[in-house]
Amino acid sequence: METRLLQTFATLARTGSFTAAATELRLAQSTVTVQIKALEKALGTRLFDRVARGALLTEDGRRLLGTAEEVLEAESRLFAAAAEDGPVTGTVVVGAGETLCSAHLPLIVAALRELHPEVEVQLEPRGTSAALTGLRSGQLDLALLLEERVNHADIAADRISAQPLDLLCAPGHRLADRTHPATWEELAEEDFFLHEQGCSYSDWLAGQLQAVPGAQPRMTRFGSIEAARSCVTAGLGLTVLPHANASHALEEGRLTLVAGPPLPDVPIHLAHHRRRQPTRAARAVMKAVARHFEQG
C-alpha cells in the first residue's frame, strides 16, 4: 500500500471536505476521490460517508485513522534515520509571515550556509493559518509563528523569542514630539496604516482602537509591510511594527517613535508537525533559528 493514500485519508479526515483536502495536498479533487476509493478497496471497508457538506468518517474510519497516522509517523522516522550518516544535506521549506521573512530569515539563511552549505532553505511567506495548513499537509517542514500562543494538538511549537513593538510616525507628524504619552482615546482619532488582517500585532492594535467608546478609527490594511511603512514615512498616519522591521527607518530618520500606551512584546514560536520527525537538515535550521534569536 502506498503511504500517500494514508496521507490523503488523514487530510480528508481533518478537513472534512474533498475540495479542501485537494487544495491542501495540491491535487485535483478527482484524484482525492480516486485515492480514497482505492484505500477503501484495499482495506475492505468504507472510511467516509459522503454527505452534502463534505465527508464524515464512518465508525471504521474513526477506528483506523489513528493507525494510519502512526504509519505516517513511522515513515517519517524511517526517512529521518536513513539520513543520519554523512554530511547534513537536503531542502527545508520554512513558512513565516512577511514580518519575519524580511527582518530575520535572510540573516538566518546566511549563517546556516556557513555551517551547512549543502542545506537549501526555501522560504514561503505565509500567515499563521496558511502556515499551519502547510505543516499539516507536508508542504512546510517548519514554520515561524508570531502568536501569543500556539495550541494545536498536532503541532509542536516552542516559544523561542519575543519581538518588542514600536508605535511609529513620520518626524513631521504632530505626535512626533509629544513629551507625554498619547492615550488610546487620542490615538483612535488618528489614521493608521497596518499590516493585513491575520497579523497578530496589527489585529491587537486594531482591537485596542476599536474598543475606545464612541471611536471610529480610520485604519487601512495592507498585504505588504513596506506599503504600510511607506504611507507612514510620507506623513499620512501611524503604524505599529516589530522593532526589527522599523530599526533601519528609525536610524535613517524616516520614522520616529510615538510616546503612547505600553505595547506588548510579540512572541515568536518555531513549529513543526508532531507526527513528522524533523530531518537532520530541518534540525540544523531549527538550531540556526534559535541561535539567531538568542544572539539577537
TrEMBL record:
Keywords on record: DNA-binding, Transcription, Transcription regulation
GO molecular function, a single term: DNA-binding transcription factor activity
Highest taxon above the source species: Bacteria
InterPro entries: LysR_HTH_N, LysR_subst-bd, WH-like_DNA-bd_sf, WH_DNA-bd_sf
Protein name: LysR family transcriptional regulator
Family affiliation: Belongs to the LysR transcriptional regulatory family.
Keyword Thylakoid part of the UniProt annotation: no
Record Gene3D superfamilies: 3.40.190.290, Winged helix-like DNA-binding domain superfamily/Winged helix DNA-binding domain
SUPFAM superfamilies xrefs: Periplasmic binding protein-like II, Winged helix' DNA-binding domain
Keyword Signal applies: no
Naturally occurring in which organism (per UniProt): Streptomyces griseoluteus
UniProt cross-references to Pfam families, sorted A to Z: HTH_1, LysR_substrate
PROSITE patterns: HTH_LYSR (PS50931)
Domain HTH lysR-type: residue ranges: 1-58
